[in-house]
Give the backbone structure.
Amino acid sequence: MIRLILLLAALTGVALGLVWLSDLQGVVSVTLMGMNVETSLAVAAVVVFALAVTISILWSILRFVFRLPSLVSIGWNARRRHKGHLAVSRGMIAVGAGDMKIARRSANEAARLLGQEPLVLLLSAQAAQMEGDASGAARAFRGMLESPDTKLLGLRGLFVEAQRAGNEREAIRCAEETIALAPASAWAGDALIEHHAKAGNWRDALKALERSATAFERGERKRKRAVLLTALAASFGDGTPEEALEAAREAAKLAPDLVPAQVAYGRLLSRRGDYRKASRILEAAWKVKPHPEIGEAYLAVRSGDAGREKLARAKKLSALYPDHPDSRYLMGEALLGTRDFELARKALAPLLEDMPTVRVCLLMAELEELEHGDGGHVREWLGRASHAPRDQAWVADGMVTDVWKPLSPVSGKLDAFVWGRASEALADRRVSQVLDGALRRLTAETRHPTPNDAREPAAQGLKKTLSASAFLASQAQESIKPVSGSTAASRRKKADVVFPLTHSPDDPGLDDNRQD
C-alpha cells in the first residue's frame, strides 16, 4: 500500500513538472556549423531527454561488445564450477553409500574442475581412505594445512591416519599442534590425556586436561580430573604419602559417585591411622550407592580386628540399606567370619530365593565347608555357581574384570569401565572354566586325600580357591585379558570419524572373518 502511494505521488510530480514546463515561456536557440535552430523550451527538453536515452543505449551496446570475451569466460567458469560442485556432491553421496568406484571417479573429476578446494581435498581423502590408500589420504590432509580455514580438519585427518599406521609420535604431534591452535578441540585433548595416561604419567595427563579445559563441560572435566587423581593416588602403592592422600581427597570430592576414588581415600586414611574419618568417608559413599568394594574397605578399616568388630561395622553399614543385596551379602560374610552359621544362613536366605549369583553360591560353598566339611554340598554349590548369573563387575569394551582401571586396555579410553552386569555371552566361559577346574580339583582331592586333609575338615586346603572373597581376589590378581569375543572386539575398534557420514570411510566396519 505504501509503495502504491509513493508511485502515485511520483507520477503526480512528473505530470505537474511537465505541465509547468509547457507553461514556461521561452525559446531555445542552438547555432551549430552555421546553422541556427530555434525551438520552444518544452521541445528542447524532450529532445535532450531522447538524446540522453539514445546515447545510453549505444554505450550499453558498445560495453557489451567489448565485455563479451570476459562474459564468455565467466560463463564457462561458472559452468565448470557447477559441474565440479555436482561432482563433489556425487562423491560425498558415494562415500556415504560405500561406493568406492564412484567416490574415486568423482574425486578425480572434482579435482580437475575445482582444483585444491577444501571440499575437494576432503573428498579425495575420504575416497583414498575407502581404498586403503593411506599415503593418498595423508597427502590430501596435508594439503588442507595450507589454508587456515581447513588446517584443523587436516590435523584431525593426519591424526587418524597416524593412529591407523601405529605412529603414536606423529599422532601426538598433530594433537599437540591442534591444542596450540584451538584449545577447545575435545578430540585433541582426549588424545593427549589418554597418551600420557597409557604411559602412567598421571601428572602429565592432568596438565593436558588443564590445557584443554575449555574443550569439556564442567561436569565432564571434573569427572576426568577425578579419574586421573584416583589413578595418581593408586600409583603410590601401599605407601601413604601426603601427595597420594591429597589426590584421593580431591578425587573423592570431585566425584562422590566414583567408587574407586572413595575407596582409595578411605583406605589411605585408614593406613594413616585416621580410622574415624575413613569410616565417615566410606559410610557417605555407601549412602550414595552400596557397592561391594566400599563394604570390603569398610570392614578392613582397622587391620587386625577380630570377627566381632568387623561384624559390628557390618551391622552399622548394612543398616543404611538393610534390604539391599550388597548389605545382606556383607552381613553374611561378616557372620561367617564369626562362625555364626545359623545367622549367616538367615542373612543370605533372601539372596537364595530367586537365582543366586556366582559370589553368593561361592559364599554358600564356603559356609558348607566351614560348618559341615561336607564335600557333597560344597560341590553342589560350586556346580550351581558355574551356571549362576554373573555378578556385577567392571565392564568396558567387551571386557569384564573385578578390578577398576582408569583406562580400557582394549581401546585406551579414559573412564571406560562402568559397574554393571555383563552379558552372559561375555562372562559364562570365563566363570565356567574357573569353577569347573575347582570342581575337578575337589574331586581329585576327595579320591586321593593328603595327610593334611586327614587332619583337617574335608577340602580345607581348597578354602582359598573356593571362597567368594578369594575367588574375587584371584580374578583381581590376574593380568587383564579380553574374555570370549574380545579378540573380535579389538579387531572391530573404530578410528575417529573425520567426516560424519552414515557409512564413514574412517569406520572399517565389522571384520568379515571375525569370530562371534
In short: The first strand starts at residue 27 and ends at 32. Strands lie at 27-32, 35-40, 393-396, 399-401, 418-420.
